[in-house]
């Protein structure tokens, strides 16, 4: 039996009507997409606004660090220059080499005493100043070995003594001290000899 048009209107909705209702119930996707498109440029603008500030702060920090390093360098150079002047004004002894082992030891002790009095602690600076006082044979020796020796005070004194005050020379002076007798030697002369040799006593 065929249904009338009125019956179709009051009956179950047709398939096409259901699809239209379903589409009306769905959220409008284009609006959501539009919000995302707007949010991305806003975030990029925010990052772009912060970037110059960060770059500026980083550049300022680097400039401050460089200024501090430059100040420390100038201060260090000024201090070294000041110590050099103090050292040379003290009229330090020179060393020209030679076979006299006692003079070798005396020169080294005088230089060390000057460093202590003037409060020169930098090991490399000590080497520079001591080497400047080497003349003649001493100067030639240093010119030959300076590129082979570490520029620390310990290395310098060790190499210097190996050359100009080796163990055999120390042993010879030690024996002289042990065999020292006053006999007819004047007291003043004996006292001076005793003092010079006493440093090599065992």
Characterization of this structure:
Helices cover 75% and strands 0% of the residues. By secondary structure, the protein is mostly helical. It folds into two domains: 31-89; 94-198, no CATH class.
Descriptive tags:
202 residues, mainly alpha, 2 domains, 9 helices, 0% strand, elongated
Write the layout of secondary structure elements.
Elements: H1 5-10, H2 15-25, H3 29-89, H4 101-117, H5 123-132, H6 136-145, H7 153-164, H8 167-178, H9 187-198
- Termini separation: 140 Å
Rg to the nearest angstrom?
46 Å
> Into which percentage range does the β-strand content fall?
under 5%
Low-confidence stretches: 1-10, 20-36
- Categorize the overall geometry: elongated
Total DSSP E strands = 0
Helix content: over 70%
Q: Report the structural category.
A: mainly alpha
Q: Main beta sheet, described?
A: none
Order of helices and strands: HHHHHHHHH
* Average pLDDT: 74
In DSSP terms, counting alpha (H) and pi (I) runs of 4 or more, how many helices? 9
State the domain count. 2
Structure, briefly:
By secondary structure, this protein is mostly helical.
